[in-house]
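Consortium newsletter contribution from the modelling node. Members have asked for a concrete example of what our holo predictions look like. Here is one, prepared for the P-hydroxybenzoic acid complex that several groups have been discussing at recent meetings.
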Amino acid sequence: MRNTRTQVAIVGAGPAGLLLSHLLHRSGIESVVIDIRTHEEIATTIRAGILEPGSVRMLVDSGVSDRVLTEGDRHDGVVLRFDGDNHRIDFRELVGESVWLYPQTDVFIDLADRRKTDGGDVRYGVRDTAVSIDPPVVTFTEADGRPTRLAADLIVGADGSRSNCRHAFPDGLRTEWFREYPFAWFGFLAEAPQSHPELIYARSEHGFALVSQRTSTMQRMYFQCAPTERPEDWDDERIWAEMRKRVNGNGFTLQEGPISGKTVLPFRSFVTAPMRHGRLLLAGDAAHTVPPTGAKGLNLALADVRVLHEVIDEYFAGGSDESLRRYTDRALDRVWKAQHFSYWATTLLHSIDGASPFDLERQRGELAMLTESRRGAAYFAEGYTGSWGPS
Ligand code: PHB
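And here is the predicted structure:
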């Protein structure tokens, strides 16, 4: 067994874990990041693609990379499509902000490159991770087979929705809030030109569809489906037939092409609190999951890291637990706002099985209020861009 020590042991080398390690490095605090996945696995998993302005500022201002500004696409609004018509929500005009289309895989690559350039200690492909809180110790088997014991002042669990770290909290200490939805998204990549310059969130009688983008020749799209659907049951023609029904019409036609990257994404809302126990702190999906409508998951994880960096900085500066104690309340403030937005944007646009004629007309009334009222549109724009002020 190899015995090592660091100030902060970070479990999970996704964007949250790596950004925290980077920010701590800038504050002169040492960390070791471990992940059971390989660099290749993380870099090739397709995830969402929208960054709030606050996320972009964090990446650029902290010196991770400005590739998001040079290679990402700034989007000043999105389209809500219903009853066959497009209704644009203009973020820039309404709240003075924009979002950036920049896939999570690129955020990961920028962070991993930055950590490597700065000599960061990131260990991919480890196995058998076990976490104990008192004293804070992470044990694991290195990719080369060597058993390792890593002692730390603090442990951060940024290890995703199936978090090991969350389960290291003593029994009965956590409260969990959970909501399941009776549908999922079928996601796919299409080798085709852009159908529209901005994202289209479409409500139709056949269910929801989202037209997003990746590059000028590759598009990302989703349609609402049953959680039990299997990607292998859907060939290209069947997928396009479903998309056409939901999106085409009134002079609008989707650009089609060969399909790859088919996945079914589950829909869940989940929050656990507290997000800290003793010297163990949770960040991102380890502590909360949102449904993908509105692409809040990654942004929320990065917002946790902003708060976490501050409280850890204060902890090492003053040596008291007081700042750690404030972490949960500060992080949860934003978490519940994002939970509300993701839930609301979902119910606004999806077809709910068993909805009554009243429910359907009410949903149209809500969409009309949003798109016809400047204040309604601004409320959506504020949520989408995450312009809720600092937590
Ligand atoms: C994506 O491009 O993957 C995406 C965009 C917006 C969403 C969800 C996913 O709301």
